[in-house]
Amino acid sequence: MLKLLCKNESDEEQSTISSNWSNLESIIMNISQPCEDMMVACRFAANEYDCSKYFIPIITDEGLCCVFNMLHPKFMFISHIPRSMRNIPERDYEPIDWYAERGYPPDLPNKYYPRRIAGTGESLGLSITLDVEADKYYCSSTNSVGFKLSLHSPNESPNVHETGVLIAPGKETKVRVRPDKTETTQKLRSVDTKYRRCLFHDERQLLYFAHYTQRNCEMECIAKMLLQHCGCISFYMPKIYKNSTICNIRSLHCVEMVRLRKDPTIGSCLDACWPSCYDLTFLVDVFAIPLWSDEFFIENKRVQRYNKTYARKNIAVVNMYFKEYSFRSSIQTEFIGTTDFLSAVGGLMGLFLGFSFISIVELVYYAIIHPIRTLLQFEYTKKPALSEKLIRCDKTTVCRQWSSVQRYKRLRKYLRLRAIYGRANKSTKQRAGYKRLSNNAVKCITNTLKKEQDIRT
């Protein structure tokens, strides 16, 4: 098992195949340097603290590590809690649920963690005095002796082996932290994920971790690929299934093939692990200088109790702090919104076409109202034309029969009126009768034309 942890090659005869590899997590905790021995002194926000109460052990790809200001396991994991985090000592601070999209809840207790920074600069940052105990080393994951430091979001698992910063013993190291935060406007929720290329907190549920981050998704992805191709998972991988077995030393070659993606036939699900729409990462600037070499006053009282030779070989002092109290975040939003689009179109049309609101009214008038009005006028003028056509029609049978009837009626009416008024002696009466006769004849003809028109229509 130690050969597996140290990544030493071994043949099958020397490997303990019959060992219970599911207990590898407990073995790592028992053989690794505990946090209370690793950390000699801790200072945060200008106050001294007991390191064992505020740093909790966690199993990573570098073995046993000590983590500060991480989420409580009840908020970090869904079901299975790692054995290294089951017995967390009681603290004076109450744990709360935190993630980058929501931040801190509105109703905060007086003392809580993950804790906010007290201020900027080394005096209000986190200072740790470490003892590497180099004489107790069995192996190292690197070519050196010392520590690895990884800064990560409180709700994600650290990637110590790949992204950790080396801390050398015998030196005082200053780690200047620069936050890098990404935010996304809520308007992008309506945009398809394949276009915005990020996920909101509630858009994907993981199997092991309670919070979605790109790092947590990648760890679960690699665990799934190991189960698919090797039938087991590494000891530090998330237990996405309760019956998952731990890879032994026989599976070391298969594990490395999957982890490093050396086999092109192995499909990868890492492409689906998109960044969070609200993401918080930390960039660091590291500066180191050797510890004292001559007899002079040492500010760190914990280092004073060690002799010069032991301190140069084993003691490391790390000071982590923020350079500035505020920082700038990147906001992802739509490139051209509705308002921007209308403004751009209106500006171009006003520039090249002299466009205005009056132009809109004219466009509506000539596109809709004017054609309708022209059509109505055409229909209205079409009816008199039909009546004239009926009056002048003399070639069809219907028109001749209708004209004959009308002529007969008009003639009979004329003869009757003539008989009535023909007996009048006075010229005035005669003129008046003829005038009335002509008026009545005109009215009769007009009424007849209207009736003919109604019948035809």
UniProtKB/TrEMBL annotation:
Q: Name one GO cellular component term.
A: plasma membrane
What residue intervals traverse the membrane?
A: 341-368
Cellular compartments annotated: Membrane
**What lineage does UniProt assign to this protein's organism?**
Eukaryota, Metazoa, Ecdysozoa, Arthropoda, Hexapoda
Tell me which UniProt keywords the record has, alphabetically. Ion channel, Ion transport, Membrane, Sodium, Sodium channel, Sodium transport, Transmembrane, Transmembrane helix, Transport
Similarity comment: family membership: Belongs to the amiloride-sensitive sodium channel (TC 1.A.6) family.
Q: What is this protein called?
A: Pickpocket protein 28-like
An example of a GO molecular function for this protein is: ligand-gated sodium channel activity
Membrane-related topology note: Multi-pass membrane protein
The cross-references to PANTHER family, in alphabetical order and at most eight, read: AMILORIDE-SENSITIVE SODIUM CHANNEL-RELATED (PTHR11690), PICKPOCKET 12-RELATED (PTHR11690:SF243)
Quick one: which gene encodes this? LOC105221890
Record carries keyword Transmembrane helix:
yes
Which InterPro entries did the record assign?
ENaC
